């Protein structure tokens, strides 16, 4: 029986509140995510999985394990705790965001982050990184100086969403739109009729 790791993932809304009037942004994406966490020696058997080639015992954590997100978030928070405390760095799993008002400060913090990544042998996906930009997409929203707005791609995803014909489809739609409720005036009132349909009422 797996004991659930209750270490909390940061709330995206709280991360966004920290941006303040930042002008410069650097976004970093860590390679291999959960695979960066080694499974404790002699505990590998607990994560054994079966394939058509037999049973395998992994040596690193992988997607699908109950505690992968919490464990990885704890590791990242522990590595960057001092920088996170400055209010200039946020970390959500493998996504790191550096933000500041001045370019000089930005360069300094970025160097500190990169040094920590090197120290802990964490690598970045170069194609997903952006350095000292004035606008970037982070965790599904577009951020810039004094502005946070919905990603146009996500807006299109909502407007072009097929009309739900099953309860599960409606739940998926509401789950997606709920993420952006802060951008939608009177969201609760708008979705109330749909939310009722996710209850015990039968569909016709």
TrEMBL record:
SUPFAM superfamilies reported for this sequence: DNA/RNA polymerases
Family matches, as InterPro entries: DNA/RNA_pol_sf (IPR043502), Retrovirus_Pol_polyprotein (IPR050951), Rev_trsase/Diguanyl_cyclase (IPR043128), RT_dom (IPR000477)
Domain Reverse transcriptase span(s) in chain numbering: 1-143
PANTHER family: PROTEIN CBG26694, PROTEIN NYNRIN-LIKE
Protein name from the UniProt record: Reverse transcriptase domain-containing protein
